[in-house]
Amino acid sequence: MIRTLHKMGLRSNHMYSAALGSIGMSIASWVVSNKYEAAGIERADRWALFVGEWAPTFFAMGVALRMEEMAQEKGQETPEWQEQSSDIRRPTRAGV
């Protein structure tokens, strides 16, 4: 999925910007909801939390896209997850 997004032109900076925008929108939605709705602070809190929960996902996707970018900078093809799991080497215990 990340490789496909990268091929479509999506970059890590786009995702980092979306995450920061989500944080800003969370604050703005709380202020607007608290000021202009008669539902009270509970509803404002729910709106802010709903929008604010997007930020970690955008940050995680930004990190994954950055890893894809770094792999392409090195001229390497990013291996599939199944191939990576077979390449994992477990550390040996000393004296065993």
Short summary:
The protein is an all-alpha fold. The chain has one domain (2-74).
Write up this protein.
Keywords: Membrane, Transmembrane, Transmembrane helix. Residues 70-96 are annotated as: Disordered. The chain crosses the membrane at residues 12-32, 47-65. This protein is mainly alpha-helical and 96 residues long. The protein has one domain. It contains five helices and no strands. It has helices at 2-7, 12-36, 41-52, 54-73, 81-87. Helix 2 (12-36) runs antiparallel to helix 3 (41-52) and helix 2 runs antiparallel to helix 4. The longest helix has 25 residues, at 12-36. The radius of gyration is 20 Å and the shape is elongated. The model has no long low-confidence stretch (mean pLDDT 80).
What's the Cα radius of gyration?
Answer: 20 Å
Number of domains: 1
Query: N-to-C terminal Cα separation, in Å?
Result: 41 Å
Number of helices: 5
Strand content: under 5%
Content-based structural category: mainly alpha
Share in helix: over 70%
* Morphology: elongated
**How many strands appear in the DSSP assignment?**
0
Mean pLDDT: 80
Task: Profile the largest sheet.
Answer: none
SSE succession: HHHHH
Provide the low-confidence segments as ranges: none
